[in-house]
Amino acid sequence: MNSSIKDSIEKLGFHVYHADDEHLCVTTPQTFSSGKPACYFISQNNNKIILNDFSLNFHAMSDCLPQPEKTENIISRLVRNTHTNGLIRFEKHRIWCKAGVQDLEFAIGHYLNVLGRLTSYEAKPSTDQELEEILSEIETFLLYKFGKDNLILKPKVIGHTGTSYDFNYQCGSKFIDYAKPEAEKTGKLLRKMFDVQNLQNDAEFQIILEDRVNKDHFKREAEILGNIASIMPASSILSS
Q1: Which residues partner with 169 through β-bridges?
Q2: Phi first, then psi: what are they for 116, rounded to 5°?
């Protein structure tokens, strides 16, 4: 390990020590709610440096969650939603990256952004967390279908009445929402879609409608919503 790497990290204000002959252990000021600090290891392979936490942050975060079995999905989503241009990866419970030695500070900056997401994460009520996971899974599907440059997340749209509406996703003139088959929800969706369409004649709508719990409710609400929107059963893209 090049001694200049250790010096560079110490200048950034982190506690660093040699874990073994090949790895430096870096302790960050970021801490989980349990009090455990987020940390990672740095090794060098020729002109490349590798940052790897060897699952330590996975286990530290898991200890803080009311549903630890959700840890892998949560970290996957947090890493994916942190803009690192694919530099930071989460595989087999490990958060890691590889970069040139000359890009050490750049890599550490992105790595710390991810760790910051982990340590500041607050578990939401189970229903909110379930919805967040569903929307994340839908987002992954839509990104694959339309491409990152074509998909807009959480667009705000003005209707004919001047009301501002939120949709989950937008691709071109198509607005996409996920919904459960409930009469009240259907009514709100209809008002929103008609108001937007009265101002934007070319607007299209797609509802990813939940069908995994009650097929009868799905059929009833799908028939109503189908008058203005295309309907996609949630089961066609979401895991059971």
Answers
A1: 153, 176
A2: -65, -35
